[in-house]
Structure prediction request, 230 residues.
Amino acid sequence: MTFTVTNIIDLSLELNSESFSMRTPAGFKKDMQFNMEVLKEHDSAEGGAQIVRGVTMRLHAGTHIDAPEHNIKGAAQIADIPLSTFIGDAVICDLRHLVPGGAITAEELEKGVGLIIRRGDRLLLRTDLNDQQYMSKEWQKISPHMTNSGTAWCAEKGVSVVGYDFFHGAVEPGVTRLMNNGIALHEKGILIMPYLKNLSAVNVPRFTLVCLPLRVIGAEASPVRAVALL
Prediction:
């Protein structure tokens, strides 16, 4: 099968050590932000003309895929997941009306994409918050929260990946389990792709999403370059 790509839309956050930052919740043994440095300059006295840079970062920096092991001890790691999961049909559910702090319920998802969702689809949740307010003081407070009925809807519809362009850790009121929606999705075998942006640029109901992870062994997550192919 062949197809023609007329447009490629980047859905990924920039990784820039001067502007990118991540929260460091309780429980971390050490903080690690995104940092890039020059390890070797051009035309150094020894070693030839190349420049070489290195980075230190969490596997969860920027747009990334969380494998089930991120939330469930002993579950699948990123290298265990078939590559076909990261390339395929996707739909966007417009949830801008749920800002600030609304509930992503089964009813909201059904209303948004119920007529076009297919088993195996990648579901991207749009609020546009990451485009302008990523990691602002209000970012967490105004992001919608996925409910238990929303995660159950994703499982029932056979969604393979759920992507977010807002704070994906927002918890349903009354639920005490930390990062509940992430755990609930992973328990159902659904992958999570946080820190998307630019979903407003996709103007078709269905498209091809490519979000290939690095081939990292023994890891619960990997950065990805998420793009929409139209």
About this structure: The longest strand covers residues 87-94. The helical segments are 106-113, 129-132, 139-142, 148-157, 180-187. The CA atoms of residues 130 and 165 lie 5 Å apart.
